[in-house]
Amino acid sequence: MSFFFGRARARTNTTDLAKQAKDHVTKLDGPQGGAKAEELAKVLAQMKQVLQGTHEAEPNTEQIYQLVTGMIEEDLLYLLAVNLYRLPFESRKDTQVIFSYMFRFRPPTGPQKPEPFALAYVVERRPQVLVELCKGYDHKESATPAGTVLREVLKNEAAAAIILYDDGEEQGSSVRGVGGINPDRPQSGRGVFWNFFDWIDKSSFEVSADAFTTFRELITKHKELVPRYLAVNFDLFFDRYNSVLVQSNSYVTKRQSIKLLGEILLDRANYNIMTAYVDRGEHLKICMNLLRDDRKMVQYEGFHVFKVFVANPHKSVPVQKILIMNRDKLLQFLSHFLEDRTEDEQFIDEREFLIKQIRSLPSAPVAPPQR
Amino acid sequence: MADEGVANHYQVLEELGRGSFGVVYKGIDKTTGETVAIKHIDLESSEDDIQEIQQEISVLSTCASNYVTKYKASFLRGHKLWIVMEFLGGGSCLDLLKSGIFNEVQIAIICRELLFGLEYLHSEGKIHRDIKAANVLLSETGKVKLADFGVAAQLTYMKSQRNTFVGTPFWMAPEVIQQAGYDFKADIWSLGITAIELALGEPPHANLHPMKVLFHIPKNSPPRLEGKFSKEFKDFVAQCLVKDPDSRPTAKELLKHRFIRSAGKVEALQELIQRKRMTDARVDHVKHPVYYQETLHNISPKDEADEWVFDTVKSIVPRRGTVRSRKPSSGFAVEDAMRKLDLKDGPLQPNTPGTVRKSTVRRQPSSASRRRSRQNSNGSPRPSLGPKRPLQPDMSFGNSGSTMRLFRRVPSDSSNSGGLASSALEFANENQPPPAYHSPVEPNSKEAMLGRRLYKKALEPCLDELHAQTAASSKREALAKLSDAFALLDAVDPEGAYHLLRNLVSTVSQDTKLNNTFLPQQAAPSSSKTTPVAVTADGNPQGGGTVLVKSRPSTATTATTTTTLAGTPPTPISPSKLVFSQQNPHLMSHHRRRGSLLPQPVSPSSSPEREHFRGDRDRDRENREREREREREKMAAAAAAALEAAKFPGGPAVPGMEHCKALSDLLYTRWTDGLRARWGVVPR
């Protein structure tokens, strides 16, 4: 009997939770904002407990189901994402946990859906939730919780597509759900994805580092989605990437983004992107200047991009020109380049290989053989 | 850069200590007047750690508990990352242990506070994973806080588990070592070990090698607290050290334990801090605080000639002389010097090149002659030399340690004049020293004959065989060097080789365990007169490895020594693989040391020496050669010892080398990670 009773009581509670939370969230701006924030904190803590269970009690699937559907009905995900930075410290963490559980929850019964249904709902009907989560990087309070949720969610290809193809009200933007995306239309560069460059470059260390980690996930995880995206938006992407990230004033951003550039280029899935990238003389110039950076790790990471240009058997004429013009300098430079890395066999071998390649360049550029 | 100005909010004072990641300073937050601790992390010196550091910051920044050190801010300044933390004036429990062990009352308080901290962390889905006295800090008032979240994990979901092999061996829970998946309970085990550490001054098995401990913990019954301690305390420790994580109590449950419930107030811990200050004062430890000094990196204006040329219009005239290397590098200097060196006045040029060369093929097969032959014949070694080919690449005779690569790596098929010049230099460089070592020492005593025979029949084939079996280049290099050293010894002083082995055998026989392993059926030969070589092999302070061997049980010793000699571990799962671990700090420093100490016969700096040689070459040279040989032999012996020591990187710090231990431990952890990745399970 008591078992039955407990369940009935829980049901009213969980459906209420979403409503209560919505009430409080919408009144955060009102005259009693402070009090509302406190009450909201309590509700969120309760929600978290329902989703997570406690050490004593396992979470109850039915309750969770009600809570998730309640939150979808009240559009609470969106409201929480928008207001994340205004919540108190503990509530931000609770919200993070709530999001993570929500996006992961699959109802035990019903049709076998490939995705957890809250996530499916967001991706198809309410993509703004994801966009708003990204905008969590506008505030240092919300950066970490939003970023943690995002990285979890971005493992899903559709969710990643929402962020990549967000482009306001433009035709083919993800604003009307994943179904409305037109991947062949070039991006305007005003969508939420393009904000990442500034978040990484201009934010404080903590925010920047978190944004970069998310950016890296977004760019390296999906081996079909991203190469296609990069192919269509090649110039826009690499212009921003090189001007904002690779030449950032922040040491960490600079070093990490050079490294990521190397990873992107050497990823098998990005073969076409790589060949297009290393054909450009402009890109080689940037890269050669990195070799002369006054910080060793920047030089080192730069080397791993530079080697792609030199190792390319089909060097374009502009690339050959630059290499030939600088042949003697390069040979001289490389023979002493990062000499103290004596334990790094692979590096030494690669450097040796580059020296050989540069030495055996023809005296004048030759049109590359047909691929 | 939003960060630039933030650093000015802090006044940085004296150095507090040096941690795993950087230097910690005391500082003052100028806006609040609050004392803080500021960690400076030099990101430029870390290869890949930026993300790990980020991880640590993100775990810390989401903690808000009185039992966890408070994180305040972090920002970048150039390539230094500043992390501002709460200042805790009492120091770590490990520091406090230095002035004596803790009593039960104090331990109970600390354990309770730690349990509060763990309860908080665990409820947040965080696992600390490195609970130990060194990571427990005290405030001046006795508050206890958890610190160092360098390896902490954040679980997204309460029920998830971790497999990562991290922590410090002595404090590691069995399930962490076994990697069968672990959760919060791992911290409870470490807490139990920490309690023992506080009571006894060190964790259980502290006398064992960390590697050994890793096998020991999962295999044996959990350690118990023995001695004159209360029943409650012993029981508390026993509760923490339940091997099955599922039956091990949670932090919350342990807070109800009698030992904890009866614990007193944290203020009682001030006594510990006082005691430490007294001891420090008594030791007359005049501390000179090291103050923070702003390092200004002056970047010298780049030379115009240095810049790349991207402008197509400008025609480029290759100007070798004006193109300067950006940093003055030793390699460059040496090369320059070499260029000036007239080959003819090299005193070490063989008197009769042809014959010496021929005769040296046998005795000194290792490097120069064979490499030369390969070069001359365009890369195809003579068939007879085939089997020895593996030994070819790394023989440089140590004659320019730091620039070795420069010569070795110059490709033989260089087409431009510069390349030719340098290969010619390489040629000369390689040729000079060997004949010098080859002043014909004919075996004229029984010992020398035996020594030569020993080399020819035993040492050389063994080394070649091992080298052939070894795959990793760093290992090969180490072996090649050793082989080189032996070849030289044989050429110059076969008697020395004889004495070396003789003394080795006799010292080995004196250690029962070694004796059983290596000389099972031999009676211990009486030791003969001791040559300087043997003394070094035995008592070389740099060796360090010998010390380790003594405290090691026989199984480990077997593995060590065979591998040192054998190079290739008998089975892939043998821990002895570590011998040549590339990252091994012992090994690396050894190479460096060796390189810098070795005599450099051709290097221009030895010109006074050369004058000397010219004078009375005959007698003097021989002595000199002998001396060199001894030194070389010392090096070889040290190499052997270091290789052995290298096998146990996490080992006890060699006296005077404690500062390396943190690094060594770190590398050790990485190594174990790698080990596990490669072979899955480590034998227990």
UniProtKB/TrEMBL annotation, chain A:
One of its GO terms (biological process) is intracellular signal transduction. GO terms for molecular function: protein serine/threonine kinase activator activity. This is Mo25-like protein. SUPFAM superfamilies: ARM repeat. Belongs to the Mo25 family. It comes from Chaetomidium leptoderma. GO terms for cellular component: cytoplasm.
UniProtKB/TrEMBL annotation, chain B:
Residues 349-358, 521-533 have a biased composition (Polar residues). It is found in: Cytoplasm. Its EC number is 2.7.11.1. InterPro entries: Kinase-like_dom_sf (IPR011009), Prot_kinase_dom (IPR000719), Protein_kinase_ATP_BS (IPR017441), STE20/SPS1-PAK (IPR050629). Residues 340-421, 521-633 are annotated as: Disordered. Keywords: ATP-binding, Cytoplasm, Kinase, Magnesium, Metal-binding, Nucleotide-binding, Phosphoprotein, Serine/threonine-protein kinase, Transferase. It catalyses: L-threonyl-[protein] + ATP = O-phospho-L-threonyl-[protein] + ADP + H(+); L-seryl-[protein] + ATP = O-phospho-L-seryl-[protein] + ADP + H(+). GO terms for molecular function: ATP binding; metal ion binding; protein serine/threonine kinase activity. Its main location: cytoplasm. Residues 608-633 have a biased composition (Basic and acidic residues). Its cofactor is Mg(2+). Residues 10-260 form the Protein kinase domain. ATP binds at residue 39. One of its GO terms (cellular component) is cytoplasm. Residues 412-421, 555-568, 596-607 have a biased composition (Low complexity). Belongs to the protein kinase superfamily. STE Ser/Thr protein kinase family. STE20 subfamily. This is non-specific serine/threonine protein kinase.
